[in-house]
Design goal:
The chain is mostly helical. It has seven helices and no strands.
C-alpha cells in the first residue's frame, strides 16, 4: 500500500520489500528474498570494504567469510539501534545474537557449498522447509521477544493515531 501511494503521489517506484522468502532453499536464498534492500546497502558499505581489507591479511578464502560475518555483526548492531529507537528499551543483545547465529550458519552453508561438486545440489524439497524452519525458530527465540518487550505494536498504533489526528486537523477546518 505504501508503494502504491508513493508511486501515485511522488511518481517514484520503491524497491520490493519481499520476494517470496517462504520459497527459500537456503540461508543465502533467504537473505536475497527476505528484504533485498539491506543487502544492496550493506554489500558496498560493509562487505566489500571488509573483504578488501581482509584480503591483504588472510587471503581470498578467509577474506570473504570474515567479511560476511562482519556484515552480519553490523546488521545486528543496526537492528539493536533501531529497536532501541522504537522502544527506548535497554538492548538485551538478542537481536545481535540472532544475526551472529545466522551469519555463522551462513558461513557453514557457504563453506559446505564450496566443497560440494557441481553434480550434487542441495535439494529444495529437503532444505526449503529446513531453512524456513530454522529462521522461524531462531526468530521466535531471539528476534521477536525483544519486539514484544518494547511494545512495538502499541507504539505503532499510537503513531498511526497521531498521524490520523494530524491529517484530520489539516483536512477539517
Amino acid at each position: 500500500m505504501v508503494a502504491v501511494l508513493t508511486r501515485t503521489i511522488l511518481g517514484i517506484e520503491l524497491e520490493p520489500r519481499f520476494n517470496e522468502p517462504y520459497l527459500s532453499s537456503s540461508l543465502q536464498d533467504w537473505g536475497r528474498r527476505w528484504n533485498p534492500m539491506p543487502s544492496k546497502i550493506l554489500r558496498p558499505t560493509v562487505y566489500q570494504p571488509t573483504k578488501q581489507f581482509a584480503l591483504r591479511l588472510f587471503g581470498p578464502k578467509w577474506a570473504s567469510l570474515l567479511a560476511l560475518f562482519v556484515t552480519f555483526l553490523i546488521s545486528g548492531l543496526v537492528h539493536e539501534l533501531i529497536f532501541y529507537y522504537l522502544g527506548r528499551v535497554k538492548p538485551t543483545w538478542e537481536i545481535t545474537w540472532f544475526f551472529l547465529l545466522h551469519g555463522f550458519c551462513l558461513l557453514l552453508e557457504v563453506s559446505y557449498k564450496k566443497k560440494l561438486t557441481t553434480k550434487f545440489r542441495l535439494s529444495r524439497v529437503v532444505f526449503g522447509p529446513l531453512t524456513v524452519g530454522f529462521v522461524m525458530v531462531t526468530a521466535y527465540w531471539l528476534f521477536f521477544p525483544h519486539l514484544l518487550r518494547c511494545n512495538v505494536v502499541q507504539r505503532a498504533l499510537q503513531e498511526y493515531a497521531a498521524m490520523g489526528t494530524f491529517a484530520k486537523k489539516l483536512l477539517v477546518p
